[in-house]
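Quick entry, no commentary yet.
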Amino acid sequence: MGARGEQTIIVGDEEIRVLFTNRALAEAEQALGKGIFQVFQEFVDQKAGITDTVHLLRAGMEAARRDARTGGKAVQTSDAYDVLNAVGFQRVIQAVAVAIADVLAYDPDQETDPNQ
């Protein structure tokens, strides 16, 4: 399956899927102008802010949209703000952090076969 981290954020009766892969993380790094490890450290040091959170959320939402292959328009920054406004910073950053951590911790030798 590869390095992936997925989470779901519930907004009312809608499920917002957030997916991170190495590609999605690279896209987030490009949008933020800094590496993912620097971003993580800024969150730990309580120096990261809303802008970082929104860019990460948008990248994860867009990766989930592409993965679903349902078409439609690309996820915009305003879409990520809508989710953040609906559920709050804590729920968003928790989902995003868990999904990103899954990608960063990926070890192909520890991957289990879903058919077992």
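second:
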Amino acid sequence: MIDFKVFVDALVKGTPWAILIAGIGAIWQLVYVYSRDKIRDKQAVSQMALEEKKFEHQKLLESIKFEYEQRRWREQLGLQLALKHVDARLEEYAKAWSYIEAVAKHRIDDGRLSAEFTKEVASNIKSWRYAKGGLLAEETTRDAAYALQRALWEYSGTTEDYKRIRSARWLFREALRADTGLGEDMTGQTIFDATEKRQRICKELRALQNKLGISPNAESA
């Protein structure tokens, strides 16, 4: 701090004006230096605070960028896996589609639908269920496949038996279409996307399972 007592004592003792002016100049120089240092200190503190804020903001931006890149990578990976899944399903479901064609209505009209033939198709569906096709299928689709397998295996040539085959065939076909994302209408809505349609297919499947003596909670053979 500046000692003004020295300045006052000089005036009292009659110190020459030149010396007093020099003293005043020195005092103002000290005041200036002191004020300048105080301002610089404040500026340094402000600059440091600004740099800290810039660092925190940059850190936040980097964190947001990382999370965005991570989410985008996961989405891209999920999309790639989904596309591979659909491709694999299309390949395996094409095999199942041939089993559906094998019990088309024209075969019974032509007299080609025998108990021996339906058992052979039932065996093929069983093999499909325990191969890649069944592994890729949704639970409802696997249940529908087993229902068709059971209906085919129990076919004895009666009209009632064939009705059960036709019902199981329709359910299995619709389940396969839904698994591959094929829509039932122009909006692309599938039976698994629309709640009422999903409930319908499950309800009809349960009714067919009851007729075939299949327990919904029991592990299929």
